[in-house]
Design goal:
Radius of gyration: 21 Å
Strand order of the largest sheet: 13-12-9-10-11-14-16-15
Keywords: ATP-binding, Ligase, Nucleotide-binding
Protein name: ATP-grasp domain-containing protein
Organism: Dyadobacter endophyticus
InterPro entries: ATP-dep_AA_Ligase, ATP-grasp, ATP_grasp_subdomain_1
């Protein structure tokens, strides 16, 4: 009989309940490290054997020395077999723990490709994958050469924030240099990138034994940066199945994850198709399930719950057993999410039979629809966007730091 395995999960955010539940259902012991302030969130407590709460520092950081000391005490009596990061902000913590305790899985070098935007762009470029022009901000002459080579506008991006946080768009060299000077001693933690107008896509996938065994391709109807900074409405929809679009996205994601050395994980990769030349450029990737409830959208169209299958695959890999993906459905889905003026908006106005998921969070309105017809999904997305804009929509300035 296979001994019970212990999985240590880390999440800076309240997320991953499906993952925790699937780990428990597979017969594992489940530990969770999370922030003390998330203690009262509705975690699936029946699926977690032990919680470890961490007091965050002023900047939201965890004291890794304290975590290592605490885990060393735990491991005297309860060995840990695998460590899983459920959010972008936890990838480095998980890699640090694995390397310190020599637990199998992604180490810090590979982990950087999934957290550090400079490392991921450099590696993609080395691997022959198209990326928009970019430069580190270490050296003034290097930045000036970049400005000469790539005309503005440009984006300044933090190297290790998630989503569209901390990104600024600048049009002139003067604006760019002013922003760099404002960053002061923190400029090394940022990069500058050529702004390429285009359509932004996301590829949500699962890798097993270094091979992408599932990927699902979707297109944002408004780029995440525009939503975060322009107070827009977040929408995404499945790309046409078996299209040149789908094949191009699939090829880029497979080549990228192979080059980055991803062995066993879910991942979320963003790609832009440039309006000027029609080519697909890599933007960024991560070794986790996509945020903003994209997993619900992928599940609706494909029948694959990314959180659940990631947990099942991790369990099989840790036990040395074979993992098999369930059959994949081939339909279309779309998601729409917006901040709402009302604390608990009444969603009864949305009553189409295509609706398969409704968001249940204060001051938000969100829906996922499914259909065999992509045109139907797009029609509903447009219809709902007009209703949301008129009846519910509220916008807030993009946060400087992530909110939990």
């Amino acid at each position: 009989m296979t001994p019970t395995l212990t999985f240590l999960c880390i999440s800076t955010y309240f997320k991953g309940n499906d993952f925790l539940k699937a780990l428990k259902d597979a017969g594992n012991r489940v530990f969770l490290i999370t922030a003390k302030k998330l203690e009262n969130k509705p975690w699936v407590r029946e699926a977690v054997d032990e919680f470890f709460y961490v007091e965050e520092g002023e900047d939201g950081a965890y004291n890794m020395n304290e975590i290592i000391t605490g885990l060393a005490y735990v491991m005297r009596t309860r060995p840990i077999d695998r460590v899983v990061a459920l959010d972008d902000f936890d990838v480095e913590k998980a890699a640090h723990i694995r390397e310190y305790f020599r637990i199998p899985g992604m180490g810090q070098t590979t982990g950087r490709y999934f957290r550090d935007k400079l490392a991921m762009r450099t590696k993609a470029l080395e691997s022959g994958i198209l990326v928009p022009g970019f430069s580190a901000l270490f050296n003034d002459d290097q930045v000036n050469r970049f400005i000469e080579k790539y005309p503005g506008p440009w984006m300044i991006k933090p190297r290790s924030e998630a989503s569209a946080l901390g990104i600024q768009k600048l049009s002139t060299a003067e604006e760019l240099w002013n922003t760099i000077h404002e960053l002061g001693d923190k400029r090394h933690a940022y990069l500058v990138e050529q702004y390429k107008p285009g359509d932004v896509y996301h590829v949500d996938s699962i890798s097993y034994n270094g091979i992408v065994i599932f990927s699902w391709n979707s297109k944002y109807l408004a780029p995440p940066f525009d939503v975060a900074h322009g107070g827009g409405i977040f929408r995404s929809v499945t790309v046409p199945l078996d299209s040149s679009e789908e094949h191009a996205l699939q090829t880029l994601a497979v080549d990228l994850l192979k080059a980055f050395g991803l062995k066993h994980s879910a991942s979320h990769t963003e790609v832009i198709r440039c309006h000027d030349d029609g080519k697909y450029y890599f933007l960024e990737t991560s070794s986790r399930v996509g945020g903003a409830h994209l997993s619900e959208m992928v599940d609706a169209a494909s029948g694959i719950n990314l959180w659940k299958e990631w947990a099942r695959m991790e369990t099989a890999e840790a036990k040395g057993e074979n993992y098999k993906l369930p059959p994949v459905r081939k339909e279309y889905s779309g998601i729409i999410i917006s901040l709402a003026r009302q604390e608990w908006p009444d969603l009864s106005v949305f009553n189409d039979p295509e609706i398969v998921w409704r968001m249940n969070e204060p001051h938000h309105v969100g829906l996922v629809v499914r259909s065999k017809s992509r045109d139907k999904v797009l029609e509903l997305m447009d219809k709902y966007a007009a209703i949301v804009q008129k009846k519910y929509h509220a916008s807030a300035p993009a946060p400087k730091k992530p909110a939990h």
